[in-house]
Amino acid sequence: MSESLLEVKNVSKRYGQQMALDNVSFSVAPGHITGLLGPNGSGKTTMIKIIIGLLADYTGEVRICGHHPGKESKKLVSYLPDKMALPAWLVVREALELYTSFFADFQPTRAHDLLHSLNVPQDKRISELSKGMQEKLMLVLTMARRAKIYVLDEPLAGVDPAARDLILSTILDNFGEDSSILLSTHIISDVETIFDEVLFLKAGVVDLQGEAEVLRSQHGKSIDQLFREVYRC
Amino acid sequence: MTGSEQVKPNFDPAIPIYTQIVDRFKQLILSGEYGPGEKVPPVRELALELGVNPNTLQRALSELEREGLLYTERTTGRFVTNDAALIAALREELIASMVEVFLEGLGALGCSLADVERLIKRYGGEMK
Amino acid sequence: MLAKLIKLDLRFAYKQFLAMAALLLLVGIFGPIMNISVLKFGLPLIFTITFSVIPVLSIWLVVQHFQRNLFGHEGYLMFSLPVSAGQLLFSKIITTVLWFNLMLFSALALVILLLRPEVSLRVVMADLLTWEAIQTGLRVLLLINVNVLPLILAIFMGIALGTVAVRNKKLGSFWGNVIAIVGIALFIWCCIKLSAWTYLDLTSEAQLFISITVAASQWLNIATSAVFCTLFFGVTTYIMRHRLNLG
């Protein structure tokens, strides 16, 4: 299917005088992993919020499998936010129940197994878990859905290098066939080999975009090196 | 192929990954780690093991198929070729390019062919 | 989906409201024992405190919950669920009505319990459980709900409007509150105008008071409330759908 899972066309978002996003366009094809790269404040989270539907006040067009962000698109998009979105008093087991209840594509047995293999205790409240555990829980909840597109906002931030591999393989091992991933990060070096396409956002503007392999051969550099050049000074 | 406890190979991210995957596969075939007729793990699984993008791996595998080193059987999967002659030819090709690189390198340092022969005898002592 | 949302909303807020209800009941039960009698404070004072403080407090709690759940951190969860803005808001409305009425009944129970030394419970129960009393009670309950709901929805609308101004949050919530108050004032004005319109013969103040609770103006009251509720609902969902600015 050559139809894109996610299409972003000329999206702009203004906060007063400041443009958080300025005429951003890109698309994500089925089965592709796209990297949304940039330092903090470059507009990545803003773009993601628009795709998820947490931000509705923007110009331009966003389509997820043909739908505008809304009730239908939320059935197809699995979102990993950069902060804990679940109430602190919720027990892990109850969080699984919550997701099972609201998301038809959620797979509770898979989630259960993943939590077990990541050593996340299921009887504790979220407030009783360490921050690392909380992040693992959110990741599991996100990846245990058979969604069409997974949008992961900085899944590696605040994760120590030893755990990064584990996080990455949890992501790569669990995303559905023909599903796509949009992963935003400012930590490039450990992850760049997984991207099909990358998009560099600088102060809300697309500075560089294209297939990772093409960029490598064109510039003779790694994506990480390109990143450092784009954001120098 | 050995299990997933294997350490992830380090691909140089400054060069297109897919050519590196192709080269690595060729080496594994030649070294015998991927024996003739042996089954190649499915793309997803292998991509996870190698830490690379599945589509990139797919491209590399297709390239290897184009060169005849791998073949796909519709229902059963992907396999290393049984064609011993092809593998031998690959081996020759790889050896030739390694020798070329070696000689070029030494030549750039000012060695003559006689120098090279002497160096080989001196440092190659352990080889049979 | 709506049922699941309601269940979720109940889960988010039940502890607070059940605790308050329990507290009120406890004060009612132990009050007379601890000598907090009606004679000391006077019935009017007790009534006033109970039926103004408690409703206001419960509205305040409901509004806090609304703000925190939809426009605070929990909004990240609520707005990524596959439900429409209308469903989210409707679920909040239903649980709001539930909690508000729970508090009303708790307040009533408190007063009845406090009156125990003066008026025996048995007598009160006998009086209350007559068909007439129940009918009147339901009518009063309906009247209260019909008139409080637009108020609460106006506040919800004000909160939603306030979030539109992202840069200056304080200014945004100031204007949100202003618009909520304007909405409420408009509603009250409409109610008064319409009820005066149905009773043309203003012979005495008492008659005017009675006419406001009698059939025809009651229907007008309900209709007015419905119109305003729909208006506030519409504006709030519009904002949630097109002007949402979370985080």
Question: What features would you describe in this structure?
Answer:
The complex is a heterotrimer of chains A (233), B (128) and C (247). With 233 residues, chain A is an alpha/beta fold. Chain A has a domain at 6-84 and 148-230: Rossmann fold. Chain A contains 8 helices and 9 strands. Chain A has helices at 44-52, 71-76, 92-102, 108-117, 131-143, 161-174, 212-219, 223-230, and strands at 6-15, 18-28, 33-37, 59-64, 77-80, 149-153, 180-185, 197-202, 205-211. Chain A has a 6-stranded mixed β-sheet, with helices on both faces. A 3-stranded antiparallel β-sheet of chain A has the order 2-1-4, covered by helices on one side. The radius of gyration of chain A is 17 Å and the shape is globular. Chain B is elongated. In chain B, helix 1 (17-31) packs across helix 3 (54-66). Chain B has 128 residues and is mainly alpha-helical. In chain B, a hairpin with a 3-residue loop joins strand 2 and strand 3 (77-80). Chain C is an all-alpha fold. Helices cover 83% and strands 0% of the residues of chain C. Chain C is built from 10 helices and no strands. Chain C has helices at 2-33, 38-41, 43-71, 75-78, 85-114, 121-128, 131-162, 169-198, 205-213, 215-242. In chain C, helix 3 packs across helix 7. Classes of the chains: A alpha/beta (233), B mainly alpha (128), C mainly alpha (247). The A-C interface holds A 15-16, 45, 49, 52-57, 70-72, 74-75, 77, 79, 81, 83-87, 98, 101-103 and C 1, 4, 8, 12, 73-77, 79-84, 87, 164, 166-167, 240-247.
